[in-house]
Structure formats: structure tokens, C-alpha cells
Design a protein that fits this description.
Length: 191
Amino acid sequence: MPFLTAETTDERDSLATFAQQQIEQVATALHGLDQEQLALVPSASGMSLGALARHVLLIAGGAALSIAAAPGPGSDPERTPEQLQAEGGLAPDALRPEDTPASLIAQLHQAGEELAAAIRAADLDTLAPIPDAPWFEGRTRWSLRWYALHQIEENARHAGHADILRESIDGKGAYELNALAAGQEWPPAGW
């Protein structure tokens, strides 16, 4: 079952692999959902799995662009200011009409690959400007090493959110979903 992060070779590969794995765990939480379940808000948080997936795509896409553009600022020209606001705040309307579980899974896998590639190509000692946002108050620059670690932290938090939301929808947990997404039986023989 592909639950554990793959073996790594060095610091850059470790950061890239772990960042990608956490995004892929969000994708795994969408496995087997239908369109209605994607939009359900099953907890007090007000989040749906679809909105959470959109948020992870926003964050990972912005991070990949920022890392690739360092030491200059990165930007995301493909999203409107309204989309950025909705997706950044995990608003229910972040889920787009054309979104499906399969399309979001594919986009999350691509976002994980792009973030991992950006990290693998980066000089981790490079200092880059911090986006102007209230949660980054008091800082103006960070190393790409710190930012890569922050991406792991951010996406691990969201993978945990996704686990809770998914279990609230149909009781399926991360181990079961990883096995099912890999085409394996659940529970494994001998459990």
C-alpha cells in the first residue's frame, strides 16, 4: 500500500518527495467520491473536500511558481482575483462547476509533481520575497529551504483535514483509501 513516503537520496529530494506526498494524500482522500460528496460540508469547519482541494491547488501552484521565480517574486496569472480570494479562504464557492473528483485528483497529482520539480531544481539557500499577507507579518524574506519545509507543513495539515472530512462523509480512512486508490483489496490479507 503506497501510504509511506518513497525513499529519498538527499535533502532536496527529501523536501520535494515529502511535499509531493502530502499533496497526493489530499488527492487520495477524494478517491471514490461522487459529485455530491465532493461538495458536502460534513463538519463544523465549513469546508468541503472540493474546496480544500482547490485551496491546496492554489497554495501548491503558487509555491511552485514562487520557487521557480526566486529570487524574484512569483505570481499566478491564470486565476482571477475572485478565484484567489475564494480558494485562498477555503470558501464553499471555491469548488468550480466543472470540478469532479477525478479532475481534482489529476490536478493535485500534477501540482505535486510541479512543486516537487521546482524544489528539486532550486538552490535552497536562495532568499526570496515573502508574499504580502497578514499571516506572514513581520517577515520580508525566507530561504527556499524554509519555504519548502513550510509547504510540507501546510499540505500535511490539509491532508489531515482531508482525512477527517472524508471519514465524516463515509467512514473511509487514509489506509483504506490508499489501498483502494492503488487498486489493492481492503483490508489486506492477514489483517
